[in-house]
Amino acid sequence: MNSEIFKLPNTNEFISSCFQRKPYIFSSVEGFKLVDWDSINRLLEKDILDFPRIRLANDNIPSIRGYRGFINHSLTMTGEAAPHINRYSLLKNLQAGSTLIIDRCQAFFERALEATKYLNETFRCRSSANLYCAWNSTPSFGVHFDNNDVIAVQIEGIKKWDVYSPTRHYPLLSDKSFDHTPPAGAPIATYTIAPGQAIYLPAGYWHNVFTETERSLHISFPLVRPRKIDVLRSILSRLEDSAELRQPIAYSQDKADNATLSAILHTYLSNINIDQWESAIIEDCINGRNITFNLPNIRTRDV
């Protein structure tokens, strides 16, 4: 596999003109070969993947999203249920137009993990990596939007992306496109993404994706960054430390009590340093769940 370090071109220009604003095409991605078919095959053979970490998608068969019949379980010698990929069932579904998806694949492919670290540092975000393998022009999900920004790096084959304007700007992580009505009319743009290229879509942009070649392999990187509403949520969480604010509202309206509450809130909010709050939240986002271990070194009573 190509050992070139993963890197996006013209990131300063991209951040100043397009990041979190509009779609963008990275025309030449260094080190884009983040995974190969041999590595994928070896992973499928290891009996460690289970639904929904590994799943299928097919816009012609929406119910396939919940289908887990391509995974069997058998008991180990100690009585634990171990997952096994049913080769026949998986190939049958892939031949019928389904896309194979492995979520958070950075846990299995080192170069994908290195790419997430690069994206975290470059865009001050928390990212993960989802692998998409397709052998058919049938879209995976149809027209939909993601509730986070996405950078999709094409590794093999060609994808066509039809992109539509947002109908809900800056969707929250709780927003699902399947609960919203897709936009009517033609796409605002169509992009053809070849190996070594990548497409960026901000959260909320509707899109539909088609495989244009015999097969396609790409990794989609969700980019999660804090929202302004997250600053307010953090502030409200800190207010829970105030005994005065934890008091119940008066049984009957009490103007004096309400005036006291108003004064407390005004004083607290007027003393907030938004810069510090934003910096802390971004730092928490970047470092989020990056837990590290240093075995065999552990803390014992004798240390």
Q: Mind sketching the topology for me?
A:
Layout (H helix, E strand, L loop, with lengths): L10 H7 L6 E3 L10 H8 L9 E4 L13 E5 L5 E5 L1 H9 L3 E4 L7 H14 L2 E2 L2 E5 L14 E8 L2 E6 L24 E5 L4 E4 L4 E6 L4 E9 L3 H12 L3 H4 L8 H16 L3 H14 L16
Antiparallel strand pairs: 1-11, 2-5, 3-4, 5-7, 6-13, 7-13, 8-11, 8-13, 9-10, 9-12
Helix pairs in contact: 5-8
Which radius of gyration do the C-alpha atoms yield? 24 Å
Total of helices: 8
Report the sheet-strand fraction.
15-25%
Annotation, overall tally of beta strands: 13
Structural description of this entry:
The protein is α+β, with helices and mostly antiparallel strands and 303 residues long. It has helices at 11-17, 37-44, 87-95, 110-123, 228-239, 243-246, 255-270, 274-287; strands at residues 24-26, 54-57, 71-75, 81-85, 99-102, 126-127, 130-134, 149-156, 159-164, 189-193, 198-201, 206-211, 216-224. Strands 1, 2, 5, 6, 7, 8, 11 and 13 form an 8-stranded antiparallel beta sheet that branches. Strands 10-9-12 form a 3-stranded antiparallel beta sheet, with no helix packed on it. Strand 3 (71-75) and strand 4 (81-85) form a beta hairpin. The mean pLDDT is 90.
Summary tags:
alpha+beta; eight-stranded antiparallel β-sheet; three-stranded antiparallel β-sheet; 22% strand
